[in-house]
Amino acid sequence: MLEHDVLVIGAGLAGMRAAIAAQTGGANTAIISKVHPVRSHSNAAQGGINAALTDRGDEWEEHAYDTVKGSDYLADQDAIEVMCKSAGQALIDMEHMGVTFNRDDEGRLGTRAFGGQRRARTFFVGDFTGQALLHVMFEQLVKSGIRSYEEWFVTSLIEEDGQVCGVMALEIRTGKMHAIRAKALIFCTGGLGRAFEPSTNALIVTGDGISLAYNAGARLMDMEMVQYHPTTLAGSGVLISEAARGEGAYLLDKNGERFMEAYAPNMMELASRDVVSRSEQTEINNGNGENGCMFLDCRHLGEALIMEKLSQIREIGIDLAGVDMIKEPIPIRPGMHYMMGGIKTDVDGLTNVPGIYAAGECACVSVHGGNRLGANSLLDTIVFGQRAGDHAAAATRSKEFVNFDGSAAVKKEEGRIQQILDRPQNDDRVANIRLGMGQTLNNNLAVYRNQTGMEDTLRSLGGLRERYAHVPVDNKGAVFNTDLIFSLELGFMLDCAETITVSALDRKDSRGAQARTDYPDRDDENWMKHIVTNKGEEGPEISYLPVSITQWTPEVRSY
Ligand SMILES: Cc1cc2nc3c(=O)[nH]c(=O)nc-3n(C[C@H](O)[C@H](O)[C@H](O)COP(=O)(O)OP(=O)(O)OC[C@H]3O[C@@H](n4cnc5c(N)ncnc54)[C@H](O)[C@@H]3O)c2cc1C
Asked: Is there a contact between 209 and 328 (Cβ–Cβ < 8 Å)?
């Protein structure tokens, strides 16, 4: 049987960073990914990565304060302190590994402004920062000699005597099922964006790890906090990076007026994302948009700057909306972008389930609370990926493998998959169920929410789940059966959708990304707490955890 001390699930930035740390810590480490590592969604990150460098006169406390305020005081301040203190070194490490960050006129690492931050502390590579980071990290992975199972899909976890001790994985190229034994699993499986329709996320971002961990007893936290990004392209919903506003772009209504002054007079377009998205949605609802969109105006930035720093999003605008941002404002609207919630961990990636760690977007440490600041997620992946890898390597040193019958496990999982393939044909399709789920979430769990809408969604999800239990898979083959994979991914997304909706219904205040029209105010007395969901007999069960407050007392938030 295949066997490793530490198995990292997911080869985005968090996963590769975790694997390199675990291997360096002396553990026999492997990484597994359903796509080639550099196709992970981290590759799509555009705008940059935050760090406060003291030699620029910036301090980690300033970064931490902006992050706390950005989170609407829901994030855990002890975790934010860890992240912001580590940021400078993490950034320099990436530079030393070979990331070609943009430079300023003096030849030093250059920065751009990003939303919700009083200082420009976002380091970047054009508007394809994620690609630059991910490719450099991949070089390090190759150099390390870590075993990499590429295009292997984790279908379930193996549990023996109540202990999680490995994964079942489908080798996509051949259709062969494998059992992989491990002393520790580190989930770095990314977000769940595709549960919503539309979303800025790649089609592979389907909440697999969040669902697998949840079903193994892991607690999820802050699941109601779903980020709608202020600038997603009309029609397709593809991301137009905050870097555009960071470089000075304006948001306009249909009459060409900048409307942000009424909502955030100081920070204007660079207020935090939840604030800007709400402002846009309010304007759209009031009829000040056009075809459900507002406009992003980059014309005054000039062709030279756009071509140097925003060339990718210019191409996206031309290819997908037929608009050249050098010449015209580009139609945008708020769109689903990021999951603040996820598998609850401590600052070393530990969850409540022994042997399961998590890091990156699938995890909730919680450093983002009610709203993530742009460019803090890439930072989160490398800081907490590394910490989880370090901890897992040390923890597995004195741990024995759990014994189980690998071939029996393979047989059992093959049987489960075969049952799915053997379902009788009916008129339903995986794609229809996914669309139904995505649209109901996007209608009722978007920028503004209310009780009736969310109850509707919960009911719809129940119906979709029933259909899911019978939905046929057309392709019965073994080789690259993406039909089967889409079906398994849909099951993961339905779990995520349910925990999001149940958590959002439970929270009876407005905070960060959750803006309830029926509870419009932030209620610190009753709701300054994390909502935790774990799997019960009848579905998600709710409990609460306190928010860690170290040095920043909650205040009224204005930008
Ligand atoms: C368009 C876009 C732009 C962004 N721009 C920025 C930015 O500028 N700055 C910033 O800070 N953040 C940005 N973000 C957010 C940030 O990129 C992500 O939160 C972060 O990269 C997530 O990294 P990750 O390592 O956690 O997961 P991912 O990079 O999503 O990787 C997940 C991995 O898990 C694997 N996996 C998942 N399920 C399975 C399974 N069942 N079996 C095997 N493998 C599995 C996948 O193959 C993949 O390798 C952006 C996000 C998007 C969508």
From this structure: no
